[in-house]
Structures are given as structure tokens and as C-alpha cells.
Amino acid sequence: MFAIPKTMRAVVYRGVNDLRLETVPVPRTGANELLVRVAVCGVCPTDIKKIHYGTVPPPRIFGHETAGTIVKSGARIKKFRVGDRVALHHHVPCLDCHFCRHRAFAQCTTYQRTGITAGFEPAGGGYAEYVRVMDFVLPGVVKIPGKNSFDEGAMLEPVNTVFKAVRRLDLLRGDTVLVAGQGPIGLMFTRLLKIAGMNVLATDLLESRLKLAKKCGAKRAVLAGQLSTLNPKLDAAIIAVPSDDAVQQALKFVRGAGKILLFAHTRRSSPTRPADALSHPMGEGRGEGGFNFQLDLATICLDEKDLIGSYSSDFTLQREVARLVFSRQLDVRPLITHRFPLAKTAVAVALATRPTETSLKIVINA
């Protein structure tokens, strides 16, 4: 049995760029719920944008790439028990609505509910010492094998988002695929595509990232500004940075019947906030919303190219993702370059917002 305190430390979002270490009550759980002691939580761009732009009202406790130990299991729960080491999944769809029938799970209203919380409006809660796991997201919880670390468990969620996107491309073995951006997400794309038998052309603004891309299996790795000199014939392109220039390059070099997948253009534009006037702190190039994005529609129609997006994860892929990560066929451990204690969460978020040449995935140890 674990001694469960009445209060805990948590990093509370109190407004734009305002994260405070506070003492809050340990969440109460019901008969169909779990209480998990957080071990590791990854810093995700989705949460960073909420913090940086204030897109949701405070107070909230963010953090959803979470792994830890079950310290309390509801009386009606049979699959899990106290002491189990688990990776959490904060979104699970209904599997029955219009969107789910089309496998657009991120559009499902049930999916859009966050089922893990450390208090206040549910927001993931991983930037705290304990989280409550609600009943409707229990199907997404995965036990971590004894040989694997909490770090690997926490990486299941971001790997899932990447794996889902690769599936959306419906590639043929031997296809040539551009991956624009070789941060932690781009490197995961590069490795998963290599595992699937694709020829990967990786681009980035940093030479150091290109060296990592080669290690992950990229057949070629070039600076983004040099792509035009190669005049590549691409079957698909994945834009893993919020750069409109990268999208334009992809549209030019992806040949007929090819696909361009947007993975990082997640902030909507508005007439008062034109995309090409922005410089996102986590991106490169112009914009990420495309309000003034120029597109020759004949490129899509006559050349039969597809411009598609992929957002968030697919919990139906969780078992396959767990196999890839826990078998270390996709070894995520080298991607984690920085770790911070809970009290330094604001520092961790700042580094993730403006990464350095040596920083990749950043995690917080609660």
C-alpha cells in the first residue's frame, strides 16, 4: 500500500506565460477510477501554445504525456492494481459517432473531453505529483513492462500521434518521403518511415539535426534552403514544423498522386492575425495558419495531389505503438535530452518553446 497525502505540489497555469508551483489537494477518485503517482511527464507543443497564447482560461494543470505508478485503484476496476507502472492516455473516443465512423477521432466530442486531471478544469494534470484517471479513458491506459522505463511510457502518446499520421499517408514500400523539420517529432517520423521501408529525405535548419536524422534512417538529409538544388521527386511530404514555406516547397516537389501532410499547423488564423505576420516561437519560416497562404488549386486538381492534416492520437493504435516503443524497434530514449524537476516546469516550458541546438524532447520528473 502507498501512503497518499492530502495535498501535493502542482504547477498551475494562472494566465499567459504564468506558471506557478502551488500546493493543491490530491484528487479524489471514484470506484471506476485510478489515482496515479506521476513519475514523468513530457513537455508537449500543444500545451506550450495554450500557455504562450492563453487560448484556454486559467486555472489549469497541464501535462498529458504522463507515466507513473497506480497508488489507488477503484473497487470496480479489475484490469489494474496498485503498484502497476502505467502510461496514460488522456483522450479516448466514443467509437460510435459520425467522426469516429470516419476514424476522425480527434473531432469526436467524447474524445475532446480530457479524462485525466490533477484539479481544476481537466487538462492532463501531468505537471503535478498525482493525477486522477477517469473511467472513460481507462481503455487507453497501458502497463509498462518491467524492462522499460517511465520515460518510454511517457513517450507513447507523442509516438502515437506520429504513427497515426504515417498511417494516414497510405504509403507504398519504397516511396520517397520528405520530412520537413527534425526536432523530436520529425525524428520519430524519420525513424517510423524507415522501419516501414520508405526512403526518407530529411530537412532542417540545423546541421546537428541532420546528423541525427541520418542516424534515424534518413537516406538523405539536407538543409531546408538547399532542397531546391536536389529537385527531388517525392511521393509524400510531412511538414513537422509550422512553416508555410515548407508547405510551398512540398507542393512543388511532390509529384502527381502524392500527399502533403500538415502536422504542425495547429494555430488558426483570423483576419486580425494574418499568418504571414507571425513568427511562432516553436517554428521556423512564416506563419502556421495560412490566412494569406497562396495555393494554385490546379496543383491539387490536375496533378491529383492530396493536401491533408493529422492531429492528435488514435488510441486504437495504442497496442501497436506500445510494441514499437517497448521492443525498442523505435528507441525513444535518445530523444530525451533534458529533464527538469517539477519546481522548474516553467524553465522546461521556456526551453521547449525556444529549443537550442542540443535540445530535443524535454521531460519533467514529478
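That was protein one. Protein two is written in the same sequence-then-structure order:
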Amino acid sequence: MLLDGTALTNLEVLLSTDGEEKGSLFKFLNRTSSPGGKRLLKDWVCAPLLQPKEINARLDAVSELCGPLSEAEALLKVWGIIKYAYALLP
């Protein structure tokens, strides 16, 4: 499904009635940390899925990313501790 401009405006998906991003659905949902993630989220919000199979696949992907610490995140956390300890050395 692709939402047209009127639907996006009336539902305040991208911009609020003030014409600002603040107060919109997109602003509420946007917790991305990269420009690519922001663009992908905007695409997802403007073109919601209709098929249960596709919706569940997306939910699985999101829960995978939001679940327990991944190995990469764990390594980054350890690296931060090492950098901090190294900075304390004389």
C-alpha cells in the first residue's frame, strides 16, 4: 500500500498540522542513528505492508536488531572499556 499525499497530511505521518516534523508519527518512531536508517524508516511508514507474511518477516528482523546485545555490540562495549582504561594509563 502506498499512502498518497492527502493521507500522509491528514494522518500527520511525516509532518504535523503545523508543517513541522515535531508531533508527527515519523518523529515519534524515529530512533535511527544513520541517514540510511532514517530513509528506510520513512519508506516503511509511507508504504505500510498489507500481507501478514511480510509484516511478520519485518517484525522478526526488527526484533533481531532490538533483542539482546549482538556480538558486534558486545565487542564495541568492551572496546569502550579498553579505551577508557588506556586513557587512564600514565
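The chain has a mean pLDDT of 87. Keep this in mind for the problem set.
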